[in-house]
Amino acid sequence: MIRTGFQNIQESYLFSEIGARVRAFQAAHPEREIVRMGIGDVTRPLPKAVTAAMEKASREMGDAATFRGYGDEQGYAFLREAVAGYYADKGVRVDPDEIFISDGAKSDLGNVLDLFSDDCTVLIPNPTYPVYVDTNVMAGRKILFYEGSGENGFTPLPDESVHADIIYICSPNNPTGAVYTREALERWVAYANREGAVILFDAAYEAFVRDPALPSSILGIPGARTCAIEVCSLSKTAGFTGTRCGYTVVPQELTRDGCSLRRLWLRRQTTKFNGVSYIVQRGAEAVFTPEGLRESRENIAYYLENAAIFGAALKKAGFSFVGGENSPYLWTKCPEGYKSWEFFDWLLSERGIVGTPGAGFGTAGEGWFRFTAFADRKSILRAAELLGK
Q1: Alpha helices of 317-376 — where are they, by DSSP H?
Q2: CA 113 to chain centre
Q3: DSSP states of 251-265
Q4: CB 330 within 8 A of CB 310
Q5: 10-50 pLDDT tens trace
């Protein structure tokens, strides 16, 4: 009766295990200070342009003349047009009808798998965001990994001898903070088109890319519109982790087995999803106004400055790391002789700093450790001080 794949997933989600260890430490040492740099949750408030728009929308919902009931499952046209304009400003062509508004990237990255058969072969980066693995284990799919390492800067390229039907790429990457170059993404797009594979491109951290030479969307790569679905979120772009809104782009040209994936995704959404609330979508629309973009980018600059501060402390303490420049994550090499969970326990007990063990992101993460720059500035400065001791 029970789907076999659910019995094969790990009992404890990575961040649940981290939470349990921290709670146990706090219970045993209630007097100890703890600085949290583990879970990638934002700390800056929503942009004022967003809250103003949501307040206005709330009042509209309380007035019979402006009240709204069910909206389009694909998302209101005003928001899809705003997202399309955002892409256009980056020089990327996206039609509003190719955009689907959702409650976040995590949901869509799991739900989009409804379009694919369970006998697909899935290619996933190692280390990786655990949701990629768990959702495919639940479905019982065959999973292959492409290996990241310090030698390839955690931006591995395709192995031409391997066949895959679905490929996950995350850039800027979670957990490593590494960003693919345009040339590297061109290699992946060419590979996917040759294999007839579909790339699920996780662009949740696209707003952190500051280097103009680095692409923040795969859809600007020639050939990507015939092989890629792009999933994005406002969680990190504009602090929507608790507000919940994201979007997925399925190009018109993307077909498999004679079927339009955009049409199939629309059919799936109209069946299983009733859309994001009007109030939230008005807030999301405000993100893409000049004021909303300015305020959002100020928050992103704040987090990147956090990364620079803590990165300097890591360097001073003798650590090497990846990321932190076009990403809020600092993927740090553990001290010699430490496995990542051992370093987690040492860092917590001796310095009172919480990070994320790299082993929780896959076998290639062993010996590495993720710090997030999403903490408030006071906490980042304190963590840098504690690390220096």
Answers
A1: 340-346
A2: 17
A3: -TT-EETTEEHHHHH
A4: yes
A5: 766 777 889 899 999 999 999 999 999 988 899 999 999 99
